Amino acid sequence: MSFVTHLECSRCGRPHPAGQIWNLCSCGGPLLVRYDLAKARAQWRREEVARGPRSLWRYAPVLPVRDPRHIVSLGEGMTPLLPLRRTGARLGASRLWLKDEGLNPTGSFKARGQTTAISMCRELGIRKVAIPSAGNAASALAAYAAAAGIEAHIFLPRDVPQANFIECQAFGARVTLVDGLISDCAQRVATAAPAQGWFDVSTLKEPYRIEGKKTMGYELCEQLGWTLPDAIFYPTGGGVGMIGMWKAFAEMEALGWIGPERPKMIAVQAAGCQPVVRAHSRDETQSVFWPDAYTVASGLRVPKPLGDFLILEAVRASGGTALAVTDQELLDAGLRLAAEDGIFAAPEGAACLAALEKLLASGFLRPDENLVIYNTGAGLKYLEAYATRYPRLAGGEADKLGGLITPR
After folding, report:
1. Which of 169, 200, 231 is the last residue of a domain?
2. CA 397/CA 56 separation, integer angstroms
3. Which residues 6+ apart lie within 8 Å of 274 measured at CB?
């Protein structure tokens, strides 16, 4: 049972009928799915959630799929919320948690978005999809498209982590490597999609990936006993996870499950690609394309997020902030986390730990606050990045690993 009513443009507010194929609004704004939350409040109690499946589909009443027979699931969601005891003790942070999205299918939080997107493709009769990706979104799309029997066309930067390239090939997707960044891949998809009959599943260019990612907010709240933390650190490339969680908090308040309090939303970017940080520091409502973007955290290498205005809105409305860390800082933080708490995080997640140290040191956050870091992927998918911290591998031993390490 879904309480979906319609879609709404996040820029101009124009409504769009549900149950039809949409990408962006005619004004260029991303579309957001809306629900009859008053009806849901009367018919769906939060105590019933625990009786649902052990996946993000336990929140099906506020997800867009109307017919459960169309759901394409690989067991995504319900990732653990882990206390960082040793890291917290080192930093003096007594209530420090990590939400480990690296334990999702295909090793990243992108599985959340693709389960809802591909399920809606099945419901709407879409048979061919295409996506530009920095890596993990492509891997997840390829997996869910394979499970649904849908044809997938994937465009990746040529220097994408090999784990992502191999995954996409293994899942049977048609893969094209592009000289450039994710923005160049997006241009290739936009040019070819109309003639090829592909549905564009680019970040925020369709309405449904955000619905899967918003379940990170529902899930965190449930795991904390239907409360919210004082601050959330989120690695921000396209930023859909942050936008989705902010949407989830508003929905939960409308359902009567939480009050109006919100966590400080902290957007973390890499020093070599920080369009949101720059826009925030300049008090601008949207970002400007970041030239020559580079970072070993491939998921953060997004020169201009389509939903930048929504990210900035969440950061400011929550009293949060946006900051960047260097590649050295994020890799060092990732290795410290692995050694201290046994979690091998993606560089993007590790960036949040480096950012946390900065905000504790500056006094922006108090060490006694309830703090949650989102690790968006598994460190094992980023061996090339972490290999740069081990001179023996970077100095020629890589060939003995079957070419899986390709030092930059």
Report:
1. 200
2. 41
3. 290, 324
Give yes or no for residue 359 having a pLDDT over 60: yes
In sign, the C-alpha dihedral spanning 375, 380, 382, 383 is: positive
Q: How many domains does the chain have?
A: 2
Q: CA-CA distance, 244 to 20, in Å (whole number)?
A: 21
Scanning 83-135, the segments in alpha helix (DSSP H) are 85-91, 110-124
Is 152 inside any structural domain?
yes
Return the pLDDT at 155: 93
Closest listed residue to residue 311, CA positions, set 281, 347, 287: 287
Distance CA(353)–CA(55), nearest Å, equals: 27
List Cβ neighbours of 351 (8 Å cut-off, separation of 6 or more): 235, 268, 269, 270, 297, 300, 325, 329, 330, 333
Q: Indicate the residue type of 49.
A: V
Per-residue confidence (pLDDT) for residue 394, from 0 to 100: 56
- For residues 235 and 73, what is the distance between their CA atoms, to the nearest angstrom? 25
Q: Please report, as a single letter, which amino acid is at residue 320.
A: G
Closest CA to 203 of 349, 306, 311, 130: 306
> Angle formed by the axes of helices 327-341 and 347-362, to 10°?
100
Which is it for strands 95-100 and 31-35: parallel, antiparallel or unpaired?
Answer: unpaired
Q: Is the pLDDT of residue 19 over 70?
A: yes
- Separation CA 363–CA 387 (nearest Å): 33
Tell the residue number behind the tokens 């979906």, with chain if given.
4
Residue with tokens 């946006």: 322
Amino acid, single-letter form, for residue 17: P
Question: What share of the chain has pLDDT > 90, as a percent?
Answer: 91
Residue 386 lies in a domain: no
CATH number of residue 365's parent domain: 3.40.50.1100
Collapsing DSSP to helix, strand or coil, 7 comes out as: strand
Q: Which residues pair with 173 in a beta bridge?
A: none
Does the pTM of the predicted model rise above 0.90?
yes
d(CA 232, CA 253): 18
Whether the CB-CB separation of 239 and 305 falls below 8 Å is answered with: yes
